[in-house]
Amino acid sequence: MSCGRANEQGAQFCKSCGAKLSQSDNSQQGMNNSASDSDAAFKQNNGYQQYDISENVYVGTTRMTKKEFDKCESIKPITKNLMVAAIITYVIGIISFVVNVIVAGNIFGILDVVIVVGLGLGIQLAKSRACAVALGAYSLFNLIFMMILTGRPGGWLIIICAVYAIIYTFKYQKTWNKYQQTGQL
Ligand SMILES: [Zn+2]
């Protein structure tokens, strides 16, 4: 009803705009399941089933879970960019492992691999802003370290990757926060 997009039968939320689908949109679901109970509560509470003060968000059936949210079409450009940034960290990790640990025999190089891949996982799976910022700090440190070591700056790929990760983890969080407050994407 909100954006005009057709959704699958039985869907609770619009895949396009995130709006809660009303019972009339969802009549195929029937009256005697849990959806009718939550719809009653939905109407009674003027659209919001429950307000979580500690989290400052609305919870319950009036909002998508983060899993459902991640599947929405308008979120995909953000999650795709985060996935690309994460994959770059995995590639950097693999190259770093081969070059520093296997070829050069530097056992401490494993630490670099763990840091980069670990932050990449945090960016991809948790969409973590903290991991993105930490990757930014690490890549700057790496740049300075390479400059001291070789006399010229290095590690550009990881810096670009960190900038991407910072931009898109913050975008993701902003969209999620807005959705929590308005129920719209
Ligand atoms: Zn919609």
UniProtKB/TrEMBL annotation:
<keyword id="KW-0472">Membrane</keyword>
<feature type="transmembrane region" description="Helical">
    <location>
        <begin position="130"/>
        <end position="148"/>
    </location>
</feature>
<protein>
    <submittedName>
        <fullName>Uncharacterized protein</fullName>
    </submittedName>
</protein>
<feature type="transmembrane region" description="Helical">
    <location>
        <begin position="154"/>
        <end position="170"/>
    </location>
</feature>
<feature type="transmembrane region" description="Helical">
    <location>
        <begin position="81"/>
        <end position="99"/>
    </location>
</feature>
<keyword id="KW-0812">Transmembrane</keyword>
<feature type="transmembrane region" description="Helical">
    <location>
        <begin position="105"/>
        <end position="123"/>
    </location>
</feature>
<keyword id="KW-1133">Transmembrane helix</keyword>
